[in-house]
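With this grant's support, we have settled on a layout for protein records. An illustrative entry appears below exactly as we store it:
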Amino acid sequence: MKIATWNVNSIRSRLTHALDWLEVSGVDVLCLQETKVVDADFPRSPFEAAGYHLYTFGQKSYNGVALVSRQPLTQVICGFSPVFEAAGSLTEAIQAFDEQKRVISAVAAGVRLVNLYVPNGSSIGSEKYDYKLRWFGVLRQYLELLKAEGRPIAMCGDFNIALEDRDIHNPEGKEAHIMASPLERETLRGILDLGFADAFRKFTQEAGHYSWWDYRTAAFRRDMGWRIDHHYLTPDLYEQAIACTIDKAPRSLPQPSDHTPVIVELDLER
């Protein structure tokens, strides 16, 4: 099974890019972030005409996540709240985090997929930075509840964090930069300590591999990127991972997203 994550930075603006890439990539499930459209206005027809099944959780102009799958998915969950409600632990504070549409989950071939668009955080010490850290706190509880299902979990998305210095083109001084601050990295490592491993680093150890390039300063042409889009797998899936790659080609298209797809391939028969 091939699963891709891609922050498309508006599905309506990048519709042709997404459809063309699906046709050539052969992925089974495409996890989209920053779709920037309410569910009623999501451009479903072109995907459905191409034979895909869609599951969306969106809002106007901001955020938004979606799953695009060759086969129907089951047990689709939009947001944090349904999982906490099923566990009898839903609070108003947790419900408030679902005002921003950042989480969608489903089951494919017995694997629990979790597609995330993590808050950016704006700047260190800001209200949005505090929100990002608190959001991760809810995510940790959410994942603990999902793990109780007993299914393997494939978690992916735009994490808006470069976990290590080798994930940044020039890491010098970046500890004072959003997406690389020590507290953000520590918080993400706390999530991974639940039993997740980085699929990309199973196959590629060296620096110089990125998934996001700022639109400014000709960053893509100069390859001044960050690796902030990740696939994190529970141990059984990590052992079954046979490849994890970054496809830079869509970033070179006219009017691209500032992110590019990251693909993990799992051999579920291993």
About this structure: The chain has a mean pLDDT of 98.
